[in-house]
Amino acid sequence: MAVTARLEIQNSVPETVANFLRQLMAQGIVDALLVPQRLPTGDNVVQTLVSRPEKLNGVDPFAPVMPVASSKLAGNVTKLGAAGRVGLVMRSCEWRGFVELVKLQQASTEGAITVGLDCLGTYEMTDYARLIAAGIDPTAEALVAAAEGRVAPHDGYQFRAVCQMCEYPAPGVKGGTQPDIAIGVIGVNDGSLLVKARDDLAETLGLTPAEAPASRATALEKLVAGRIAERDRRFAEFRAQVDGLGGLLDYFSTCIRCHNCMITCPICYCPECIFRTPTFDHTSEQYFNWADRKGAIRMPTDTLIFHITRMNHMSTSCVGCGMCTSACPNDIPVATAFRAVAQKTQAIYDYVAGRSLEEDVPLATFREDELTALGERE
Amino acid sequence: METFEPRIIAFLCNWCTYTGADLAGTSRLQYPPNIRVIRLMCTGALDPVYVAKALLEGADGVLIGGCHPGDCHYQSGNYKARRRIAILNQILEQMGLEKDRIWLRWISASEGQYFADTVTEMVAAIKEMGPNPAKELWAA
Fold it and tell me: Are B98 and B126 in contact (CB under 8 A)?
């Protein structure tokens, strides 16, 4: 069970969160923290692994920017057994990616205390830097709006497309596994942070149970409804555009198969990935054969195969973090395609990526009594 | 006009369909010569990448032949294959590609006749569909 409590905001939200994290260290709950901190240059907020509390001096976990999805980083420090107790501070999609990686045995909850955060949307890194250069404090601005129940970008700017259609502004999927501690700000308008902690942690931390304000549920409901409408609009647009081979080729026409989308994907971890091996380096004779057969072939070859294969391999675990779109040098909306496909592939197995540690990933299991028509004569 | 003769890539499990194909041969059963067989140790060893690759390269159809549910030589390879093919079908459908070019069939080592019938039916069905458009697209 979890205890809900209020944490009074002192000075600022980031400062209050930093104090809370310092308390986790001081009380020996964690030895180190994986947490987003503002770089000294100020124009970016990056993940840091902090083992000394005095180095928690730039904590900015609600900053609307996400250079990398920390799920993989959380795997780095926990996969082969964490060297100490580590607090993992993650936004919603990072938490869901972490859940997938735990199930794929690429991360572990052993020795980890997970801290989930409300996500206030994220800008592309370059947009974030531009806002900073213009003298704007994107975090402060987002937090003011969040308290009023709004999540919206700065005038003239946009959040990343995946954020505009994200159904999970708060960490943890309903009915599934929840992080050990969750910190909420959306719709919390009484000068406090909403902290939901595992029973034993709440006791150690001395949290006093309190009710969540009614404005929070209303705000989240409204936000999610808007996001779902936006998601469905984008999916419909994708499906109308990619209706057949021609449309698919158009969609990925500027792909140069640089593999950036795969490298930044928190789910794509396979060290023996077929696209990292020489499988697609063919002999000259083979290229000539293909060219002869079709008259011409596009070089580099296999761009479409690359995307279709990734969809087959990881769409059932796609959490929609959108790192693929952000990493694309040619602005292909990769994540929209993957999310649209993932919605359907996950639905086959009534699976929601990142929902629960108790549900096996679809590709690692099966049921004898499912899909029984498949493989039978029609 | 030249009559269209489909080219079908068949991924057959060593323990059942491949042996069933052999039985069809030794029993002198007649079926169209449109398939090119690739022997696998199990349908569970078939990565969807090879199915997709065959189709994008211009194969008119892909036949995947495995052991009946419950009969897998390795206990559960065919169940896993079934999940993967369901995912592949869904992906192709999402993008408006022709998933009907992919046939999954459970054919045991003793079902030589069923193998011959399946190939006959599949060749007829693919002829009905016409050639795979990917054959002519150099960008695919």
Answer: no
Give me the half-sphere count of Cα atoms (radius 13 Å) on the Cβ side of residue A256. 7
Tell me the per-residue pLDDT of A158-202, one tens digit each, with 9 for 90 and over.
999 999 999 999 999 999 999 999 999 999 999 999 999 999 999
Reference A74, options A96, A45, A54; nearest CA is A96
Interface probe with B: pick from A314, A371, A372, A376, most Cβ of B within 10 Å = A371
Say whether A374 and B104 touch across the interface (CB within 8 A): yes
Q: What is the ipTM of this complex?
A: 0.94
- Model pLDDT for residues A325-361, shown as the tens digit of each residue: 999 999 999 999 999 999 999 999 999 999 999 999 9
B77 within 8 A of B46, measured Cβ to Cβ:
no
Please give the torsion angle defined by the CA atoms of residues A97, A98, A102 and A103, in that order, rounded to the nearest 10 degrees: -20
CB A269 within 8 A of CB A106: yes
Distances in whole angstroms, Cα of residue B48 to Cα of each of A61, A245, B51, B92: 40, 18, 5, 11
- Residue A346's nearest CA partner among A334, A333, A358, A363 is A363
Q: Which residues in chain B (30-59) have CB-CB distances under 8 A to chain A? A: 47-49, 52-53, 56-58
State whether residue B128 sits within 8 Å of chain A by CB: no
B115 burial via Cβ count (<10 Å: 0-12, 13-18, 19+): buried
pTM of the model: 0.95
Tell me the β-bridge partners of B64. Answer: B11, B104
Which residues lie across from A197 on neighbouring strands?
A: A3, A181
Angle formed at CA B75 by CA B74 and CA B80, multiple of 5 degrees: 90
Give A-chain residues touching B95 at CB under 8 angstroms. 242-244, 247-248, 341
